[in-house]
Amino acid sequence: PPTQLPAATVIQQPVVGRLLLDSMTVHPLPPDGETSARSRYTRTTFTWQGRPVVLYNVHLHTIGQARPWTLMPEQWTSPARWRRFFRTYREGALRRAQQARLIRRRIQRESHPVLVVGDFNSTPHQWAYWHLAQGLQNAVARRVRGWAATFPAQRPLVQIDHVLAGPAWQVAAARIPANGTDGLSDHRPVVAYLTWKPLP
Asked: Mean pLDDT across the chain, nearest whole number?
């Protein structure tokens, strides 16, 4: 990371690459981003082919540990288990909406081309994703045919990890590798190949 970050900075949404990064800042997300490194996003700037870029790496609020697909067969008929799931699901959706609004306001102030990547914990059909994706193109939707789920990595059911690119970009290709994440993540990665659109 850029050297101006304090040495004790904890980054759980890092940006690494072959290019020199011009700057990186870490920002808290409500409600507990001041105390939890997981509830933050990074804003990174770099220069690609002579043009400045702003990249947001986000991790929106989780859906929690109460997940229907982790229930044992005998728990499927438990009203208490389903009440717990719907309560945590609702709370998570509200928190993701709050976080998406905050990040969207920041993106709207940018004057340079934008990329937004990361774990949205939201499918393309959910409000938090839709709010963040306004005016941006989804690399997977443009270039991946067929099943595009990313989570859980072993048997993906939902697409909650995204690469969004502003209108200055052209999505040349995208893919979701099935292998290569063993021990690294419980999500599959999203790989996108971008080029600049010609300047007018």
From this structure: 88
